[in-house]
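--- STAGE predict ---
source: upstream dedup step, 1 unique chain passed
mode: sequence only
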Amino acid sequence: MPSAFSDAGHSLALINGRILGEHGICEALSISGNRIAALGASAEIAAGAPAGCEIVDLAGRTVIPGLIDGHAHLDREGLKSVLPSLAECRSIEDIVARIAAIARTRKPGEWIITMPIGIPPSYEDVLAGIAEHRFPDRHDLDRAAPDNPVYIRSIWGYWRSNLPLVSIANSRALRLAGIDAATVAPAPSIEICRDADGAPNGIFVETNKMPVVELSLMRRAPHFTASERAGALAASMTLYNRAGTTSVFEGHGIAAEVLDAYRQVRSQGRQSVRASLVFSPAWPSTSAQDCRDLLKSWGHWLAGKGLGDAWLGMAGLYGEIDGSVERELRSSAFPQTGWAGFHYNSSLPREALKEVLVEAARNGIRAVGILPNMLDLFAEVDRIAPIAGQRWVLGHIVSLTPEQVKQVAGLGLAVTTHLTAYIYKRGSELVEKLGRERAGEIVPLRSLREAGVPIAFGSDNAPLSLFRSIALAVDRRDRVGAAISPEQALTREEALECATLGGAKLTFEDSEKGSIAIGKLADLAVLSADPLQCAPEELGRIESELTIVDGRIVYRAEAGSGR
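--- STAGE serialize ---
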């Protein structure tokens, strides 16, 4: 199997630790090339180490298989540091001063694009952190940078749990975008806020989790460049390695601009996270016949394991039902995707998508969907062209009835779920929505496991650590401390398995990775605490102190870092 590293003969040994192996716990292991060569006692592993072998004394620390993120959006983490931050601003005057300082480094007429107002990563209660309890408007931003177009981007709506999204432009940016008193909002979900005289005041408010304004009204503002995306992707990999993640599955699909970034990072020898990508097609029309014909012409390369290798592969396609005006507006910015990293025009009206998925099923092309309405569509497709054995993926599991759990199992689906969103952020909300008698349907991990459904955890990059998911799977408490259907909880061992072997099953790679066994890929994480024994409150805060991918150390915590 191809390695990302030139030294295929490299050897490494880890001794004096607690290795959570597939067949039990041991003290040490050795690695030859990119594979686990031996497991056993420290003395025998050390004695059998070849000349030149690097030996790491674990000093009692725990080693687990590298975590596999089943819905990562890995590229976004690094992108958050590409744009200037406003996180430290606590007043309108702070924002004005920050943008004025940026303007002094820019030429007249050069765009200034910043991160959103508020405190990352979730940007909750934004105005509570601003002294004036209001957003700045174009007049404020004009004071900061009269000679530059300025645009403060909105958040990616899934970073927090509530709407609206707000973005802000100054007068120069509005003029360049062609927005004036006569401009009409392109969708009911968008509000162009106005001064008393009817002129736009620069503030845009939208009730969309996925921003529309920046891809429609403000599409003249610069987007992320190819070099920014590649640099951000490499930086993201280091941050995911720090969290113990060694592989990702991009189930929401990958747009061409993100695939290009992956290819650039790979060619530069900077890839430190394995990536299994799902294709995000940019359908040229919403006609069922057009889309089906296009899939027939080029879709054969998506079948089975698709193209690529164990480091960077592309297989299967993403599908979503959406015929909204917002979908059309976002799609009009093609090939730019903003924060998304997937093509918005991969969404189709229901009947068109059904035709595409039937064609996919007939040709062995796996499909991935993340919305609840995709389960019934998968079942309809299966009645026409059976999908058994293809392991299609249903992501972002929010709630499933007992009958739907049986349906998922019967279709041979694998599932991924984002526990930070559906247990921690929205747990009590979902209980109120469904009723307490149906609370057991909320992310029913125990029911899915007992039905034999492969389960993987996805961070959704909100936040990136899968240890948050592991902790929530075990404890199932939301942000106010309410227990959310505790009968659906997993043991620590089961939750850890979902975050490792469960992720490998998404791509039929569970014989290659996802557990520690002789002959498997040496993708490992040495942890700051033992996930099977640490205090409950510590479980979600675990980080990796040493991360190994393909038999090589790709991340090492700095001495004295406190981890």
